[in-house]
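Q: I have two molecules that I believe assemble together. Could you output structure tokens for the complex as a whole instead of separate predictions?
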Amino acid sequence: MRAKVLLIDDDADFRVAVKSLLESHGYAVLEAASGHEGLQMVREQKPDAILLDIMMETTTEGYGVTHSLKYRDEYAEFRHIPVFMISSITESPDERFPMSAEVEMIRPDGYLSKPLDIPELLRVLEKTVGATKGAVVR
Amino acid sequence: MSESVPAPMLVVIDDDYAMRLSCAKILAKMGLRAEVFEDGARGLNGVGTCKPDMVIVDLKMPGLSGMEVISRVHEIDPQIVIVVITGYATIDTAVQAMKCGAYDFLPKPFSPDELRLIVNRGLERRRLALESQRHEIEQTMLKRRFVTFVSHQLRTPLAAVHQYLDVLKHLDQAGDAAVRRQEWLSRCLIRIEELQQLIADWLTLARVEGGSLSHERINVDLNQIIAGILKSYEQTAAAENVFLEAYLPDEALFVPGDRNCLNVLFDNLIANGIKYNKPGGKVTISGAKSRGEVVVAVADTGIGIPEKYRPFLFEEFFRAKDEGTKRTAGTGLGLHICKRIVSEMGGTIDVESQAGAGSTFRVRLPAWREPDTVGSQCDAERQANIDSR
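A: Yes, here they are, computed for all two components at once.
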């Protein structure tokens, strides 16, 4: 059974590129263009790993999504799914944004900067879920 | 005042018992909170713990002098308003206290009314100081956020292009890329164009914000500007199957302004009219002079703007997100730039729209007014101005 990776990002081009990459490495890829759509997909499809953009549209919606997944009771059954936050913001003159305090506070399972480094992405996913799973691990 | 906001807090420092007592009584009657202290050292301690809005301090006390108290209070919080009480009011001591940072002084003996007056004035001053401090903090945060935000906007298309090329290279090694190459390269070009447009828009915005407009007011004929833009969009419009039509008067539509900025303004509006249209749709530009104003309307028969988006339409980086717009490239700066240009020129821009049926953007700019010495071709216009008064 192929491992399912959910890619939540508002940039369609970015999704197309990453989806092709991961599919060529044996992953099944689900796409969502917003945080809202992403959460819905988590409930319906129970992915094995989530790649989540921090800044969608003009807000840092990704924080809210991670927060829901990791802390809200209604998502308790999905709490074990690893969440990797991705963003093109790596540093900024405003030190509250987003690498430091907020990412640390929310504690995703990892942070990857955009554009994604292909070997790093494949390594991280292989380590957490692997492209194919023998049995569903709970 | 709402109940949750506590009454302003005052600290009174005076070695004279009767003075402390009467001040406390008057302040309590005003509905204020007050703490009284008998010398400078205790008073400063009190300021540290009470965090008052205002301090009333006697200049002449044993121990710490009033002058010292003033500077130490401002070390705790420079926004605390200080009023000094002085028993031998000379201009010199008052001036000296003000130089040390006191807001005002109250010569002894003073009436309850005098105290009330000066306290009210001082508290108003405190309120304004805090408000402007808050405003300044908000402005700084906004600026910082803006830089973060713009850098994100610039990086987004770059990241997409980078990711496409990197994945393409990766898949090429697996001999797996041929089918995607053409399509992805086209997408890369589109995203690079988006980036170029964003930079161009941002520079325009910087130019408008820099106020270079206000120095450069020449007499510009909007008829000419609009005709030029329409010409430049003929092919684009035909490709999108959108008709362009113009109803412009024979006489020139003169406005005082900057030619480049006016070009950007109407270029943005007309481009939007085409971009957010439907096949077979229309963009109608009409212009007229009325009552000292030039009014230009750009109307389209396109997708329209849902009411919920309209209040944000002119804000920077705002883009309506729905089925109709998601396939259309845009920087979210175009209408913001339009708004800035129009306001710089002392005009207004507004929009009427019906979702699904189209939008009309209406620009009103002050008309060019010839200096009085210039000849008769402007008489009609001047007459119109007089009539409208």
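A: One point stands out. Chain B has a mean pLDDT of 84.
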